[in-house]
Structures are given as structure tokens and as C-alpha cells.
């Protein structure tokens, strides 16, 4: 009997210890999950660019920061907050309504962007944040003393220039903030001198700040981590234009340029991840497309921009060489210059220019009209651009993604005095 009691007592002790052990382990798991949950609360990275930079350079800066955010997500969840489009240099139309606080969704397919990195619009960030404040702003700047050699480095320094204002009453900083300057404020602002690639900011963002929202101003100061590699092309491929803009461009191609994706071999897959084209897969529509940059380029890049008469001669020669009788012109030239160019080309060729309706211009602004031009140029049998123009560069990118023969993409107009007429560097797509 005594033995039976001892056995029963031992059995109950073991059961009690097991329950205690299981309870303690479960409690440990809950504590761990709680800590992990805290860690997993998303952080937000915002950025802005020098106000003087144009639309296509800003697209390039997005790529640099998107790669940085994807790298940050290896250590915890970050979301990239897209800076609204406002008041760019080339957006001068006065009859389209305010060209500010424009969301990215008007120009780009956000679902496509999110296949590379988590993104949200700035107004969505304000809603999620539940307060019109950004925790910390870091204004990126070059080193005041310049540099003798290239090296990766960054230091907190006094501001060389400071676009932000301190309000001693609220103890907050005020600035442009994408046109929300009367509604948004920063709790902290510092200047950082930096030399290097975007990735140099990762250790700082992970170790030197625990702020939930961090903004990098003058983000163009840092460079691409790996220009032209597979990751570079992944983020570039994800930057698809919004479907509504592509549809308008496609309708114009079909009506005036005898161009459709089926005939041109430029069908776009639902996801950019499934599009891996080889050079020569795309044929393109039966027309020559040219991006003729004028405006300030005539003055600041005089040696690169041909006269209208010589530009017309080059276009006619290329059209004849490739047996094309239609020419599409994307240009920032005023209408009188376009008509002059068209006159120089003559009646042997049909010359087209996309002319949006008044409603289109109101709906899609100058930026949307420019994207439609780029989309039409991207589908031409032959493309000719302007030297050192980011507008031309982005068209060349699109054509690489679609799978065009590089000989039909990397071409430019030359000045009549330029005897060498070097053609653009060929940045080929990598998968």
C-alpha cells in the first residue's frame, strides 16, 4: 500500500512538473511573440529630391531608395512612402489645374511596384500615422570641404543650407513636405554629409535611430548601389506606367501608327517578374519615333542639339534606311518649332504628335502626357533620342524590357558640327 502511494505521488509530481513546464514554455513563447510583434511594427522611410530635378531623374532616385528599403526589410519591416509629385520644372501648363500633391497612382502601377518593395502614398501614410508629423528628417548634403578621393563615408555636420524652419513655440520643424507645408511638421531635423551609395545609409537607419518614420531629404545625393545589375533591373522593371496611361498610348498607336502589341510582338505579361525578353523578341510598330529635346537644351547643350533642319534630314535618312514612312515626334518644342520641323521633313512621310484633349490634360497633367509620349516611343520599330536626356534614357529602358534589338534603340540625333556623332552607351538588361 505504501509502495502504491509512493508511485501515485511520484506520478502526480511528474504531471505537475510537466504542466508547469508547459505553462512556463508557453509564457516564454508569448513573451517572445510580444517582443517580436513590437519589432515587427512597420517603420516608414520617406524621401524627397532637390526641387530643381525633373520627372525622369526623380524616377531614378526612386530606384536607389527602393533598393535601400528592400535591403532594410532583411532586418525588419519597412515601407517606402512615395513622395507626391509637385511643381516640376517642365510642368508649365496653366490650364490643367494645380499640378501638386499628385499621387504616384496617377502615373504608375502601385501593385507592380509592390512586387519589388512595400510602398504607400504619402496621404496613406498620414492616415496610418494618425498624426501630421514625421519623427526624424535627415537632410543629405555633400561635404563642404569637397573631396580629393572617392570614399564611402557619412557624418553628422552643421547644415550648409537649411530649407527647414524651427518653431520655438511648438518645438517642431517646418518645411515644404511635398506641398503639405502648412499641415505637416517634423519632430527632429539634422544634416548629414554623405559620400557613397544608398546602401551606406542602412547601418545608420538600423542602429542610430529607432524612429518609426524617417525622411531622407535630397536623396539624389546618394548613388545607385549596383548600377545596371539584376537588382537594378528588377526595380526598373517593376516601374510600370499606370494602365490608364498605357491604354491611351495603345489607342493612339492603333489609330494612327498601325501598331498593336500582337503585331509588334510587344505583349506585356501580367507581372513584370514573368517578362524575360531577349534582344530581338520585339519587332515594334511600323514607324520611327524620335525624342527631340529642345527648350533649355538648345541653350545649355548647344553642341548636342541639332538645328530643326538638320534634325529633319537625319530623321528622313533613317526612315528611308529602315523603310518606314511614319514618324512620331515627342518633343518639348513649342508648336511653331514642331510645324517647322514637320515642314522640313516634307510630304514624303506622315508625321504625328500626340495631342491630348483638354480633359486628358486636366486628368493626367503634364506628367501623364509625357508618359504617353514615352510609351508610344517605346513601341516604335526604331527609336532616336537626344544626348544626355533622362527622358530618352527611360525610353531606352522600356525598350530593353520589351526586348528590342539594341541597334533599334540606342540611337541619337547629332549636331551638324559633330563629325564623330557617338551613339548612346548601351545599358543592357540583366535578369
TrEMBL record:
Pfam families: O-FucT. One of its GO terms (molecular function) is peptide-O-fucosyltransferase activity. Its EC number is 2.4.1.221. One of its GO terms (biological process) is fucose metabolic process. Pathway: Protein modification; protein glycosylation. Residues 1-21 form the signal peptide. InterPro entries: GDP-Fuc_O-FucTrfase, OFUT2-like. It is found in: Endoplasmic reticulum; Golgi apparatus. One of its GO terms (cellular component) is endoplasmic reticulum. It catalyses: L-seryl-[protein] + GDP-beta-L-fucose = 3-O-(alpha-L-fucosyl)-L-seryl-[protein] + GDP + H(+); L-threonyl-[protein] + GDP-beta-L-fucose = 3-O-(alpha-L-fucosyl)-L-threonyl-[protein] + GDP + H(+). Belongs to the glycosyltransferase 68 family. This is GDP-fucose protein O-fucosyltransferase 2.
Amino acid at each position: 500500500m505504501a509502495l502504491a502511494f509512493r508511485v501515485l505521488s511520484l506520478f502526480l509530481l511528474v504531471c505537475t512538473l510537466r504542466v508547469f513546464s508547459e505553462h512556463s514554455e508557453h509564457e516564454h513563447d508569448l513573451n517572445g511573440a510580444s517582443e517580436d510583434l513590437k519589432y515587427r511594427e512597420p517603420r516608414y522611410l520617406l524621401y524627397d529630391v532637390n526641387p530643381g530635378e525633373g520627372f525622369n531623374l526623380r524616377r531614378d532616385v526612386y530606384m536607389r531608395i527602393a533598393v535601400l528599403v528592400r535591403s532594410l526589410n532583411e532586418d525588419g519591416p519597412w515601407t517606402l512612402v512615395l513622395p507626391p509629385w509637385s511643381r516640376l520644372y517642365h510642368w508649365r501648363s496653366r490650364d490643367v489645374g494645380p499640378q501638386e500633391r499628385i499621387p504616384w497612382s496617377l502615373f504608375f502601377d502601385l501593385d507592380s511596384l509592390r512586387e519589388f518593395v512595400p510602398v504607400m502614398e504619402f496621404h496613406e501614410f498620414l492616415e496610418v500615422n494618425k498624426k501630421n508629423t514625421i519623427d526624424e528628417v535627415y537632410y543629405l548634403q555633400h561635404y563642404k570641404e569637397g573631396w580629393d578621393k572617392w570614399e564611402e563615408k557619412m557624418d553628422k555636420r552643421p547644415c550648409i543650407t537649411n530649407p527647414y524652419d524651427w518653431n520655438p513655440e511648438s518645438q517642431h520643424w517646418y518645411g515644404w513636405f511635398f506641398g503639405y507645408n502648412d499641415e505637416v511638421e517634423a519632430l527632429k531635423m539634422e544634416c548629414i554629409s554623405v559620400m557613397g551609395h544608398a546602401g551606406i545609409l542602412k547601418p545608420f537607419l538600423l542602429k542610430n535611430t529607432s524612429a518609426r518614420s524617417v525622411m531622407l531629404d535630397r536623396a539624389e545625393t546618394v548613388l545607385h548601389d549596383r548600377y545596371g545589375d539584376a537588382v537594378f533591373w528588377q526595380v526598373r522593371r517593376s516601374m510600370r506606367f499606370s494602365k490608364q496611361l498605357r491604354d491611351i498610348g495603345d489607342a493612339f498607336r492603333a489609330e494612327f501608327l498601325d501598331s498593336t502589341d500582337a503585331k509588334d510582338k510587344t505583349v506585356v505579361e501580367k507581372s513584370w517578374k514573368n517578362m524575360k525578353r531577349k534582344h530581338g523578341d520585339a519587332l515594334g510598330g511600323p514607324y520611327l519615333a524620335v525624342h527631340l529635346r529642345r527648350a533649355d537644351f538648345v541653350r545649355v547643350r548647344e553642341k548636342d542639339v541639332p538645328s530643326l533642319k538638320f534634325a529633319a534630314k537625319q530623321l528622313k535618312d533613317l526612315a528611308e534606311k529602315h523603310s518606314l514612312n511614319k514618324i512620331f515626334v515627342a518633343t518639348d518644342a513649342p508648336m511653331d518649332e514642331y510645324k517647322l520641323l514637320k515642314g522640313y521633313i516634307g510630304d514624303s512621310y506622315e508625321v504625328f504628335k500626340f495631342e491630348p484633349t483638354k480633359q486628358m490634360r486636366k486628368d493626367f497633367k503634364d506628367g501623364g502626357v509625357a508618359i504617353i509620349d514615352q510609351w508610344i516611343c517605346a513601341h516604335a520599330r526604331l527609336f532616336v533620342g537626344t544626348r544626355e536626356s533622362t527622358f530618352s534614357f527611360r525610353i531606352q529602358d522600356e525598350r530593353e524590357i520589351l526586348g528590342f534589338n539594341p541597334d533599334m534603340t540606342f540611337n541619337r540625333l547629332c549636331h551638324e558640327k559633330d563629325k564623330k556623332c557617338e551613339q548612346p552607351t548601351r545599358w543592357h538588361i540583366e535578369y
